[in-house]
Amino acid sequence: MTVAAWPETRVPVLTAEEAVRVAAALSRELAASASLRDRDRILPLAELEAVTASGLLAITVPAAYGGADLPVRVVAEVVRLLAAGDPNVAQIPHSHFAYVNALREQGTPEQQAFFFGEVLAGRRFGNAQSEIGTKHVRDIRTTLTPDPAVPGAWRLDGLKGYATGALLAHWIPVLAHLDVDGPLHVAWVERHAPGVTVVDDWDGMGQRTTASGSVRLEDVAVAADRVTPYHLTFERPQTYGAFAQVLHAAIDAGIARAALSEAATFVRTKSRPYPDALVERAADDPLVVQALGQVEVQVRAAEALVREAASAIDEADLDLSAESTGAASLAVAAARAATTEAALAAGSRLFEVSGTRSALGALNLDRHWRNARTHTLHDPAAWKVQHLGRWVVDGVLPPNHGQL
């Protein structure tokens, strides 16, 4: 295999221990200003640049191309730590990791050499996948049609929504059909290419600074070597969907941990005790302590299930089969269901234990619940539980698609 010459500027190639340590340090920095960014909707430009420069966005580049090639269990922990600091910053590169994985799945050696080199040079991938107003999330209308002026090339047209990461990306992978009814492919277009318009029209109540807006694609020129198959990934056993989903679970676990930590700090430093508790500090109220302990159990369980799910993906990747990948998807389903409940519970019970003062708008503590409720809407947790139940009852493995 011929590997292209490395770009002159490269981000650090991190070991597993370094990646976790760097993510933990960045998490503390992100947490210090996360509330301000949420309150004033300040996009985390400098923060995302810091994450990129640290080398964390290159940790899944294969070793054959000079990357760290770290296991999923490490990637999930990195994302969880970043989310505990600011889940917006953690969500923005979610699609970056997913589409690095897409290149691993279906990119040609030449495409892999080029795009992995881009990642190692500090370039980010966004996403233009979902569409608004279609029948369902997997109903795609965006199309690649043959370019009449350039043999083998394509023209790309469509409108995308929920395009997290696109505004701040260097490359935007676009999910599109070949010739309207053909199979799904990924068109790799430059962020500022002619015909590409990224609109910062995201108006979510939570995850407010992810810039998850729209992407308009109008007669965008796409070279033949900038298109990769998407559909082929799901014609065999795969962990592509499980990988993307476990990172979502890691984000929710980070939100849960952040909410619980802030609740504990508030109780310890600001809350007044209820008179009937007959204690000097709210932190000594047995009902408050009990409630915090209950949430800690939920959060710990969610974090453990994320670790278990990530390890199941690593194990399945060693020997892909319907059984191994199905087991990984079920483990991820359990993690997503648990992290959904934990994030929502922590974001809500924060106020129960902290008291009336915690509801003041100036404190912005509701951002944790808003972030949790918004992010957990990506995929219904109830369907994760359905797939787990069907496996328990009849041993039915979950379907082979990109959302499990």
UniProtKB/TrEMBL annotation:
- Which E.C. number(s) belong to this protein? 1.-.-.-
Keyword Cytoplasm included in the entry's annotation = no
Looking at the record, the residues that make up the Acyl-CoA dehydrogenase/oxidase N-terminal domain are 22-122
Q: Which Pfam families match?
A: Acyl-CoA_dh_2, Acyl-CoA_dh_N
Q: Which domain of life is it from?
A: Bacteria
Domain Acyl-CoA dehydrogenase C-terminal: residue ranges: 247-378
For the keyword Transcription, the answer is no
Mind listing the UniProt keywords for this protein, alphabetically? Oxidoreductase
Tell me which family the UniProt entry assigns to this protein: Belongs to the HpaH/HsaA monooxygenase family.
Cross-referenced NCBIfam families, in alphabetical order?
sulfur_SfnB
The protein's name in its UniProt record: SfnB family sulfur acquisition oxidoreductase
Origin organism is Nocardioides jiangxiensis
